[in-house]
Amino acid sequence: MAHVTGSASHREGAVAERGGGSPASSAVYPGDPRYEDLALRRRNERFVQRPACFRVVRSTDEVVAAVQWAVDSGRPVSVRSGGHSLENSVGEHPDGVIIDMTGMNAIHFDPDRRAVVLESGATLGEVYRTLYLTWGVTVPGGWCHSVCVGGHIQGGGYGSLSRTHGSVVDHLYAVEVVVVDEAGRARAVLATRESGDPHHDLWWAHTGGGGGNFGVVTRYWLRSPGAEGDDPADLLPRPPASLTGASSCGRGRICRRSRSGG
Ligand SMILES: Cc1cc2nc3c(=O)[nH]c(=O)nc-3n(C[C@H](O)[C@H](O)[C@H](O)COP(=O)(O)OP(=O)(O)OC[C@H]3O[C@@H](n4cnc5c(N)ncnc54)[C@H](O)[C@@H]3O)c2cc1C
Protein backbone atom coordinates (compact mmCIF):
# COMPACT_ATOMS: atom_id res chain seq x y z
CA MET A 1 0.00 0.00 0.00
CA ALA A 2 1.02 3.60 -0.11
CA HIS A 3 3.44 3.97 2.72
CA VAL A 4 2.01 6.10 5.48
CA THR A 5 4.06 7.80 8.09
CA GLY A 6 2.94 10.09 10.87
CA SER A 7 4.23 13.41 12.15
CA ALA A 8 4.76 14.08 15.86
CA SER A 9 1.61 16.21 16.07
CA HIS A 10 -0.42 13.45 14.43
CA ARG A 11 0.96 11.02 16.95
CA GLU A 12 -0.03 13.08 19.96
CA GLY A 13 -3.55 13.74 18.69
CA ALA A 14 -4.19 10.17 17.67
CA VAL A 15 -2.89 8.66 20.88
CA ALA A 16 -4.95 11.05 23.00
CA GLU A 17 -8.13 10.33 21.04
CA ARG A 18 -7.73 6.60 21.17
CA GLY A 19 -6.54 6.66 24.76
CA GLY A 20 -3.48 4.59 24.03
CA GLY A 21 -1.81 3.42 20.88
CA SER A 22 0.29 0.61 22.27
CA PRO A 23 0.74 -2.43 20.02
CA ALA A 24 -1.65 -5.29 20.57
CA SER A 25 -0.56 -8.86 21.23
CA SER A 26 -0.54 -9.54 17.49
CA ALA A 27 2.84 -7.84 17.04
CA VAL A 28 5.61 -10.26 15.99
CA TYR A 29 9.22 -9.08 16.19
CA PRO A 30 12.55 -10.63 15.08
CA GLY A 31 13.55 -13.29 17.59
CA ASP A 32 9.98 -14.56 17.92
CA PRO A 33 9.76 -18.03 16.29
CA ARG A 34 6.69 -16.84 14.39
CA TYR A 35 8.73 -14.11 12.72
CA GLU A 36 10.67 -16.51 10.47
CA ASP A 37 7.47 -18.25 9.39
CA LEU A 38 5.86 -14.94 8.53
CA ALA A 39 8.99 -13.78 6.68
CA LEU A 40 8.77 -16.87 4.44
CA ARG A 41 5.11 -16.35 3.53
CA ARG A 42 5.65 -14.99 0.00
CA ARG A 43 5.47 -16.64 -3.39
CA ASN A 44 8.54 -15.07 -4.99
CA GLU A 45 11.56 -15.94 -2.87
CA ARG A 46 13.69 -13.40 -4.69
CA PHE A 47 12.32 -10.71 -2.38
CA VAL A 48 12.89 -10.55 1.34
CA GLN A 49 10.12 -9.41 3.64
CA ARG A 50 11.82 -8.79 6.98
CA PRO A 51 10.16 -5.74 8.50
CA ALA A 52 10.73 -4.39 11.99
CA CYS A 53 7.45 -6.00 12.93
CA PHE A 54 4.57 -8.06 11.54
CA ARG A 55 1.06 -7.37 12.79
CA VAL A 56 -1.18 -10.44 12.50
CA VAL A 57 -4.72 -9.10 12.60
CA ARG A 58 -8.09 -10.79 13.13
CA SER A 59 -10.67 -7.99 12.86
CA THR A 60 -11.26 -4.57 11.35
CA ASP A 61 -10.68 -2.98 14.75
CA GLU A 62 -7.29 -4.67 14.95
CA VAL A 63 -6.39 -3.38 11.49
CA VAL A 64 -7.34 0.16 12.53
CA ALA A 65 -5.21 -0.22 15.67
CA ALA A 66 -2.27 -1.66 13.71
CA VAL A 67 -2.35 1.13 11.11
CA GLN A 68 -2.71 3.76 13.83
CA TRP A 69 0.22 2.27 15.69
CA ALA A 70 2.38 2.36 12.52
CA VAL A 71 1.40 5.99 11.87
CA ASP A 72 2.03 6.96 15.48
CA SER A 73 5.44 5.23 15.34
CA GLY A 74 6.35 6.93 12.06
CA ARG A 75 6.89 3.54 10.42
CA PRO A 76 6.19 2.66 6.76
CA VAL A 77 3.24 0.27 6.61
CA SER A 78 2.36 -2.27 3.95
CA VAL A 79 -0.14 -5.11 3.79
CA ARG A 80 0.01 -8.72 2.70
CA SER A 81 -2.79 -11.22 2.25
CA GLY A 82 -1.83 -14.30 0.23
CA GLY A 83 1.74 -13.23 -0.54
CA HIS A 84 1.21 -14.12 -4.23
CA SER A 85 2.44 -10.91 -5.76
CA LEU A 86 5.25 -11.96 -8.08
CA GLU A 87 6.62 -8.45 -8.03
CA ASN A 88 7.91 -6.78 -4.92
CA SER A 89 4.68 -4.91 -4.28
CA VAL A 90 4.43 -5.67 -0.57
CA GLY A 91 7.87 -4.11 -0.29
CA GLU A 92 11.05 -4.52 1.70
CA HIS A 93 11.15 -2.04 4.57
CA PRO A 94 13.45 -3.13 7.40
CA ASP A 95 12.07 -0.33 9.56
CA GLY A 96 8.46 -0.93 8.53
CA VAL A 97 5.35 -2.87 9.54
CA ILE A 98 3.68 -5.55 7.45
CA ILE A 99 0.04 -6.15 8.32
CA ASP A 100 -0.68 -9.84 7.70
CA MET A 101 -4.33 -10.48 6.83
CA THR A 102 -4.39 -14.28 6.88
CA GLY A 103 -6.18 -14.40 10.25
CA MET A 104 -9.13 -12.56 8.68
CA ASN A 105 -10.58 -15.20 6.38
CA ALA A 106 -14.30 -15.44 7.19
CA ILE A 107 -16.91 -15.92 4.47
CA HIS A 108 -20.57 -15.27 5.26
CA PHE A 109 -23.80 -13.75 3.97
CA ASP A 110 -24.80 -10.22 5.00
CA PRO A 111 -28.62 -10.07 4.78
CA ASP A 112 -28.70 -6.29 5.28
CA ARG A 113 -26.60 -5.64 2.19
CA ARG A 114 -27.82 -8.78 0.36
CA ALA A 115 -24.24 -9.70 -0.39
CA VAL A 116 -21.66 -12.35 0.41
CA VAL A 117 -18.82 -11.03 2.55
CA LEU A 118 -15.25 -12.20 1.99
CA GLU A 119 -12.55 -11.17 4.42
CA SER A 120 -9.24 -10.35 2.75
CA GLY A 121 -7.32 -13.32 4.11
CA ALA A 122 -9.68 -15.87 2.53
CA THR A 123 -8.00 -17.92 -0.19
CA LEU A 124 -9.65 -18.48 -3.55
CA GLY A 125 -9.89 -22.18 -2.70
CA GLU A 126 -11.82 -21.41 0.50
CA VAL A 127 -14.03 -18.98 -1.40
CA TYR A 128 -14.92 -21.41 -4.21
CA ARG A 129 -15.64 -24.25 -1.80
CA THR A 130 -17.77 -22.15 0.54
CA LEU A 131 -19.72 -20.34 -2.18
CA TYR A 132 -20.50 -23.54 -4.03
CA LEU A 133 -21.16 -25.91 -1.14
CA THR A 134 -23.22 -23.38 0.84
CA TRP A 135 -25.21 -21.55 -1.85
CA GLY A 136 -24.40 -23.21 -5.21
CA VAL A 137 -22.76 -20.06 -6.60
CA THR A 138 -19.28 -18.93 -7.60
CA VAL A 139 -17.20 -15.98 -8.80
CA PRO A 140 -15.12 -15.79 -12.01
CA GLY A 141 -11.76 -15.62 -10.20
CA GLY A 142 -8.33 -17.12 -10.83
CA TRP A 143 -7.13 -20.70 -10.78
CA CYS A 144 -4.55 -20.67 -7.99
CA HIS A 145 -6.29 -21.78 -4.80
CA SER A 146 -3.76 -20.19 -2.44
CA VAL A 147 -4.07 -16.67 -3.84
CA CYS A 148 -5.97 -14.53 -1.32
CA VAL A 149 -8.86 -12.28 -2.23
CA GLY A 150 -7.08 -9.37 -0.48
CA GLY A 151 -4.84 -8.66 -3.46
CA HIS A 152 -6.76 -10.63 -6.09
CA ILE A 153 -10.09 -8.79 -6.18
CA GLN A 154 -8.76 -5.25 -6.26
CA GLY A 155 -6.52 -6.31 -9.15
CA GLY A 156 -9.67 -7.28 -11.06
CA GLY A 157 -9.55 -11.04 -10.63
CA TYR A 158 -10.14 -13.12 -13.74
CA GLY A 159 -10.26 -16.81 -14.56
CA SER A 160 -11.82 -19.54 -16.63
CA LEU A 161 -15.37 -18.21 -16.13
CA SER A 162 -14.50 -14.63 -17.10
CA ARG A 163 -15.73 -14.86 -20.71
CA THR A 164 -19.17 -15.63 -19.34
CA HIS A 165 -19.25 -13.66 -16.11
CA GLY A 166 -16.59 -10.93 -16.38
CA SER A 167 -14.07 -10.29 -13.65
CA VAL A 168 -14.68 -10.66 -9.93
CA VAL A 169 -14.87 -6.85 -9.61
CA ASP A 170 -17.89 -6.85 -11.92
CA HIS A 171 -19.67 -8.43 -8.92
CA LEU A 172 -18.12 -6.18 -6.27
CA TYR A 173 -20.85 -4.40 -4.33
CA ALA A 174 -18.81 -2.87 -1.52
CA VAL A 175 -15.41 -2.74 0.07
CA GLU A 176 -14.32 -1.89 3.62
CA VAL A 177 -11.01 -0.06 3.70
CA VAL A 178 -8.90 1.22 6.59
CA VAL A 179 -7.59 4.61 5.56
CA VAL A 180 -5.63 7.39 7.26
CA ASP A 181 -6.98 10.93 7.12
CA GLU A 182 -4.98 14.13 6.86
CA ALA A 183 -4.91 14.41 10.65
CA GLY A 184 -3.17 11.04 10.84
CA ARG A 185 -6.17 9.15 12.19
CA ALA A 186 -6.88 5.64 10.97
CA ARG A 187 -10.50 4.58 10.45
CA ALA A 188 -12.53 2.05 8.52
CA VAL A 189 -14.64 3.31 5.59
CA LEU A 190 -17.32 1.37 3.73
CA ALA A 191 -17.52 2.24 0.03
CA THR A 192 -20.23 0.88 -2.26
CA ARG A 193 -21.07 0.97 -5.95
CA GLU A 194 -24.27 2.91 -5.20
CA SER A 195 -24.03 6.08 -7.30
CA GLY A 196 -25.18 8.22 -4.36
CA ASP A 197 -22.56 6.87 -1.97
CA PRO A 198 -20.18 9.65 -0.91
CA HIS A 199 -17.39 7.03 -0.94
CA HIS A 200 -18.26 5.77 -4.43
CA ASP A 201 -14.83 6.84 -5.76
CA LEU A 202 -13.12 4.69 -3.13
CA TRP A 203 -15.16 1.70 -4.29
CA TRP A 204 -14.18 2.46 -7.90
CA ALA A 205 -10.52 2.68 -6.84
CA HIS A 206 -10.74 -1.00 -5.85
CA THR A 207 -12.09 -2.32 -9.15
CA GLY A 208 -8.91 -3.28 -10.99
CA GLY A 209 -6.05 -0.94 -10.15
CA GLY A 210 -4.22 -3.43 -7.93
CA GLY A 211 -3.55 -3.72 -4.22
CA GLY A 212 -1.68 -1.62 -1.77
CA ASN A 213 -2.68 1.81 -3.05
CA PHE A 214 -5.47 3.38 -1.02
CA GLY A 215 -5.61 1.60 2.32
CA VAL A 216 -5.99 -1.81 3.91
CA VAL A 217 -8.97 -3.70 2.54
CA THR A 218 -10.54 -5.72 5.31
CA ARG A 219 -13.69 -7.04 3.63
CA TYR A 220 -15.35 -7.32 0.22
CA TRP A 221 -19.12 -7.60 -0.36
CA LEU A 222 -20.12 -9.44 -3.54
CA ARG A 223 -23.47 -9.23 -5.32
CA SER A 224 -23.98 -9.32 -9.10
CA PRO A 225 -25.37 -6.12 -10.63
CA GLY A 226 -29.14 -6.34 -11.04
CA ALA A 227 -29.45 -9.42 -8.82
CA GLU A 228 -32.89 -9.50 -7.19
CA GLY A 229 -34.10 -10.90 -3.89
CA ASP A 230 -32.32 -11.84 -0.71
CA ASP A 231 -31.45 -15.48 -1.35
CA PRO A 232 -27.66 -15.74 -1.76
CA ALA A 233 -28.22 -18.52 -4.29
CA ASP A 234 -29.63 -15.85 -6.66
CA LEU A 235 -27.11 -13.11 -6.04
CA LEU A 236 -23.93 -14.47 -7.69
CA PRO A 237 -23.23 -16.55 -10.86
CA ARG A 238 -23.98 -20.24 -10.86
CA PRO A 239 -21.04 -22.38 -11.97
CA PRO A 240 -21.26 -24.62 -15.04
CA ALA A 241 -22.28 -28.23 -14.48
CA SER A 242 -18.70 -29.38 -15.13
CA LEU A 243 -15.32 -27.96 -15.99
CA THR A 244 -12.76 -29.54 -18.29
CA GLY A 245 -9.18 -28.58 -17.56
CA ALA A 246 -5.64 -29.75 -16.99
CA SER A 247 -5.38 -32.07 -14.03
CA SER A 248 -3.88 -30.54 -10.91
CA CYS A 249 -2.25 -33.90 -10.15
CA GLY A 250 0.60 -32.91 -12.48
CA ARG A 251 0.41 -36.02 -14.72
CA GLY A 252 -0.71 -34.09 -17.76
CA ARG A 253 -4.14 -35.77 -17.86
CA ILE A 254 -7.26 -33.92 -18.80
CA CYS A 255 -9.97 -34.56 -16.26
CA ARG A 256 -13.35 -33.33 -15.13
CA ARG A 257 -13.06 -31.46 -11.88
CA SER A 258 -15.65 -30.90 -9.21
CA ARG A 259 -17.16 -27.45 -8.94
CA SER A 260 -16.13 -27.15 -5.30
CA GLY A 261 -12.48 -27.24 -6.29
CA GLY A 262 -11.65 -30.88 -5.61
C1 LIG B 1 0.53 -18.90 -9.10
C2 LIG B 1 -0.31 -17.67 -9.36
C3 LIG B 1 -1.45 -17.77 -10.13
C4 LIG B 1 -2.25 -16.64 -10.37
N1 LIG B 1 -3.37 -16.79 -11.14
C5 LIG B 1 -4.17 -15.71 -11.35
C6 LIG B 1 -5.37 -15.85 -12.12
O1 LIG B 1 -5.70 -16.93 -12.63
N2 LIG B 1 -6.15 -14.75 -12.28
C7 LIG B 1 -5.81 -13.53 -11.73
O2 LIG B 1 -6.58 -12.58 -11.87
N3 LIG B 1 -4.66 -13.38 -11.02
C8 LIG B 1 -3.85 -14.44 -10.83
N4 LIG B 1 -2.68 -14.29 -10.11
C9 LIG B 1 -2.31 -12.95 -9.63
C10 LIG B 1 -2.89 -12.68 -8.23
O3 LIG B 1 -4.28 -12.50 -8.33
C11 LIG B 1 -2.26 -11.37 -7.71
O4 LIG B 1 -0.86 -11.54 -7.58
C12 LIG B 1 -2.86 -10.95 -6.39
O5 LIG B 1 -2.52 -9.60 -6.15
C13 LIG B 1 -2.40 -11.82 -5.25
O6 LIG B 1 -3.06 -11.43 -4.09
P1 LIG B 1 -2.48 -11.91 -2.69
O7 LIG B 1 -3.28 -11.25 -1.63
O8 LIG B 1 -2.37 -13.39 -2.68
O9 LIG B 1 -0.99 -11.32 -2.77
P2 LIG B 1 -0.13 -10.31 -1.88
O10 LIG B 1 1.27 -10.49 -2.38
O11 LIG B 1 -0.38 -10.51 -0.43
O12 LIG B 1 -0.69 -8.89 -2.29
C14 LIG B 1 -0.57 -8.40 -3.63
C15 LIG B 1 -0.68 -6.86 -3.60
O13 LIG B 1 -1.92 -6.48 -3.05
C16 LIG B 1 -1.71 -5.77 -1.83
N5 LIG B 1 -2.69 -6.26 -0.86
C17 LIG B 1 -2.85 -7.54 -0.43
N6 LIG B 1 -3.84 -7.61 0.45
C18 LIG B 1 -4.30 -6.35 0.59
C19 LIG B 1 -5.32 -5.77 1.40
N7 LIG B 1 -6.05 -6.53 2.24
N8 LIG B 1 -5.54 -4.43 1.31
C20 LIG B 1 -4.79 -3.65 0.48
N9 LIG B 1 -3.81 -4.15 -0.29
C21 LIG B 1 -3.58 -5.48 -0.25
C22 LIG B 1 -0.28 -6.03 -1.39
O14 LIG B 1 0.26 -4.97 -0.63
C23 LIG B 1 0.40 -6.19 -2.74
O15 LIG B 1 0.67 -4.90 -3.28
C24 LIG B 1 -1.87 -15.39 -9.84
C25 LIG B 1 -0.70 -15.28 -9.07
C26 LIG B 1 0.07 -16.41 -8.82
C27 LIG B 1 1.32 -16.29 -8.01
TrEMBL record:
The keyword Translocase does not apply. It comes from the Bacteria. Its cofactor is FAD. Pfam families: FAD_binding_4. Residues 1-31, 228-262 are annotated as: Disordered. Residues 47-227 form the FAD-binding PCMH-type domain. Keywords: FAD, Flavoprotein, Oxidoreductase. InterPro entries: FAD-bd_PCMH (IPR016166), FAD-bd_PCMH-like_sf (IPR036318), FAD-bd_PCMH_sub2 (IPR016169), FAD-linked_Oxidoreductase (IPR050416), Oxid_FAD_bind_N (IPR006094), Oxy_OxRdtase_FAD_BS (IPR006093). Residues 253-262 have a biased composition (Basic residues). Belongs to the oxygen-dependent FAD-linked oxidoreductase family. This is FAD-binding oxidoreductase. It comes from Streptomyces sanglieri.
